[in-house]
Amino acid sequence: FLTIYFPRPVRYNKNRLIIFEKTDRMEPIMSNENKKVKVHYEGTLNDGTKFDSSYDRGEPLEFVVGAGMMIKGFDDAVRDMAVGEVKNIHLMPEEAYGQPNPQNILTVEIAKMPGSENLEVGQRVALGTPNGQQIPVRVTEKTESTITFDANHEMAGKELNFKIELVEVEG
Known about the structure:
Elements: E1 5-6, E2 9-12, E3 18-20, E4 27-28, E5 36-45, E6 50-53, H1 54-57, E7 61-64, H2 72-79, E8 86-91, E9 105-109, E10 124-128, E11 134-142, E12 146-150, E13 160-170
Antiparallel strand pairs: 1-4, 2-3, 5-6, 5-7, 5-13, 8-13, 9-12, 10-11, 11-12
């Protein structure tokens, strides 16, 4: 078993290159890859609007790092964190929920979808697929004869900011 020591990164510069603290003390680089972790986090948009917070729920989020359970940028940020460390990250849409996909927008005739006449713009519902899967959608437009649904994630196309605190690592 070999342990490699590197100085701990302090911050990233504008080109996303790591700036290291000049120190005589070296710390081991450890990976949380494939480990179950618990984190507290707060997510905000660029205008400061909070969209989610485990602190508000009073319970940390639990997931396996690298298992595809989280958005890529969040997963990457937690991969090399130490317990007790707090990290602030800024994610571009490609590191989060991606860009909105026009193929995820569906317009149907109200007459072909019984019950859709009662739906309103902005309402969130689930549409069923032939194999029984439920897909969450938002009503984005409604005319007298058609209704339009958007199945893109509500955070698609948005830059996201997270304050992440690593609370626990198992295994």
